[in-house]
Amino acid sequence: MDQNYRTSFTVDRSPEEVFAAINNVRGWWSEEIEGRTDELGQFNHHYKDMHRCTIQITELVPGNKVVWHIADNYFSFVKDKSEWKDTDIVFEIARKGDHTEVHFTHEGLVPSLECYGVCSNAWGTLINGNLHDLVTTVKGQPNQNE
Predict the structure, then answer these.
(1) 3-class DSSP assignment, residue 45
(2) CATH number of the domain that 44 lies in?
(3) Is the pLDDT of residue 141 over 90?
(4) Number of domains composing the chain
């Protein structure tokens, strides 16, 4: 059975607007991002001394799909510091009538991982709260610069 973390939401916006918001990672996840987040390549994220990761953007299909590969990861709060390493984050965008559906999957973030509780709660807030708000109001609530 597929136990990857998933969540989704529907908005009254175009797939292109949703795609642009997803790629504005500083607008919904964190201002602590180094590198371009809107083109194929690599960017880095860090949050205090708790989390650092290197993300490879492997797929960008305008208005349709974004895929990130976690090339490297560090967590301070679990035994296996690299738990997310070699996992994939997938954003799928689909037009449904007058609305757009966003399906988020973190492939490899499964209940057997020590960070699952903390990470799934964080993704829930980031995707269903911050990203949703950025798409609908053009104002997310990313983690602020330290």
Answers:
(1) strand
(2) 3.30.530.20
(3) no
(4) 1
Q: What is the pLDDT of residues 22-72, one digit of tens each?
A: 999 999 999 999 999 999 999 999 999 999 999 999 999 999 999 999 999
Which residue range(s) make up the domain with 118?
5-137
> Is 78 part of a structural domain of the chain?
yes
With 0.85 as the threshold, say if the pTM is over it: yes
Which whole-number Å values give the CA distances from 8 to 28, 56, 93, 125, 142, in the listed order? Answer: 15, 22, 10, 12, 19
| Residue spans of alpha helices (H) in 6-146 | 15-23, 25-28, 116-125, 132-137
The answer for 41, left when phi > 0, alpha when psi is -120 to 50, beta otherwise, is left
What's the pLDDT score for residue 146?
A: 47
CA 104 distance to own-chain centroid? 8
**Residue 91, in any domain of the structure:** yes
122, part of any domain: yes
Tokens of 83: 């738990």
pLDDT band of residue 2 (cuts 50, 70, 90) is: confident
